[in-house]
Amino acid sequence: xxxxxxxxxxxPIMTEAxxxxxxxxxxxxxxxxxxxxxxxxxxxxxxVTPKSAPQMKAALAKGPVAIAIEADKSVFQTxxxxxxxxxxxx
Length: 90
Description:
Blueprint: H1 2-10, H2 31-35, H3 53-62, H4 74-77
């Protein structure tokens, strides 16, 4: 996920309101225009140590928090409903 944040530090991101998803092939022709009109920027990011409530609270106090999961694990590939409780989640 750090690669995405590094990208956001150098490339302004469009808002959903300014650049809505239209589910059409023609949307791709607008990408170069949209990139030059970005308004959302990430100025910094940090990783939070797993299971560290104090670090999570500090991160939440600074701004939005993004969560990543290891979705390449077999437990996710066969998932169909409910809450995952498997230790194989990663």
